Amino acid sequence: MKINGILKKLPYSEPFLFVDSLLNITEDSAEGVYTFNDSLPFYQGHFKNLPVTPGVILTECCAQIGMVCLGIYLLAKEGEIDTEGYQIGMSSAEMEYLLPVYPNEKVRVVSEKIYFRFSKLKCRVVMYNDRDQIVCNGTIAGMLKLKSDA
Predict the structure, then answer these.
(1) Cα(68)–Cα(46) distance, rounded to whole angstroms?
(2) Fewest Cβ atoms nearer than 10 Å: which of 28, 45, 46, 127?
(3) Which pTM does this prediction carry?
(4) Residue 3: enclosing H or E segment and its boundaries?
(5) Is 46 a residue of the active site?
């Protein structure tokens, strides 16, 4: 599956889509970018006079690029993604936050597959800012199941 096809299959829309583009995707890794636009609603209250991207949103960005995009690619490789659809559920995330991300900052997420079996995908993820500094890193795991499997 091509990168544009993966992006079209993402089950998110604005303002909760945190993938601008994928730079690379293979059976073992994914890499993509996102710019946190200053008009995103959570900046209005997090924090007063100094907006910062919440850690849960950084984790979601890592999950969308590092787990969901890679999972769609892997399901397509197995010939399973062209069915009615699929369900996604994050089962665990263990993240370490090292630097803040401010409005209008562009980040790059790099993900490495730890394993993909029985519909469960676990990945190591690292988010970098535009100065190539590590913003956060950790592991994310989740299930990607076909809706017909429910």
Answers:
(1) 26
(2) 45
(3) 0.92
(4) helix 3-9
(5) yes
List the one residue out of 29, 10, 59, 47 whose CA is nearest residue 20. 10
Tell me the CA end-to-end span of the chain in Å, nearest whole number.
24
- Cβ(105)–Cβ(129) below 8 Å: yes
**Of the residues 29, 46, 54, 93, which is catalytic?**
46
The dihedral over CA atoms of 23, 15, 120, 138, expressed in degrees to the nearest 10, equals: 70
Residues, the chain: 150
Burial status of residue 50 (CB atoms within 10 A of its CB: 0-12, 13-18, 19 or more): exposed
pLDDT per residue, tens digit, the chain (150 aa), is 788 889 998 989 999 999 999 999 999 999 999 999 999 999 999 998 999 999 999 999 999 999 999 999 998 887 766 545 677 888 899 999 999 999 999 999 999 999 999 889 999 999 999 999 999 999 999 998 766 644
Q: What is the C-alpha separation between 97 and 22, in angstroms, rounded?
A: 23
Please give the full DSSP string across 33-79, using - where no structure is assigned: EEE--TT-GGGGTSSTTS----HHHHHHHHHIIIIIIHHHHHHHHTT
